[in-house]
Amino acid sequence: IEEGQGRNEVVAAYPDSTMADILKVCEEKNWTLADYVYEHESDIKPYLVEILTVMRETLENGLKAEGNLPGKLNYPRR
């Protein structure tokens, strides 16, 4: 690190610095907290869709599987 540079530069994710400020903006614009997040983090929706997709695939795979559950208990799937 060169002189004058900080070790960790923190970049604020949102323009408002307190939850009270965020809630005030939400009230003024008739937004939910999710609306506020979506407005300021454009890359979050695709990430959440990816998570939901993986969760659904995992659930479907688990429901399709037959036999015993993995592990030492040898417990049958229902």
Automatic annotation (TrEMBL):
It comes from the Bacteria. This is Serine dehydratase.
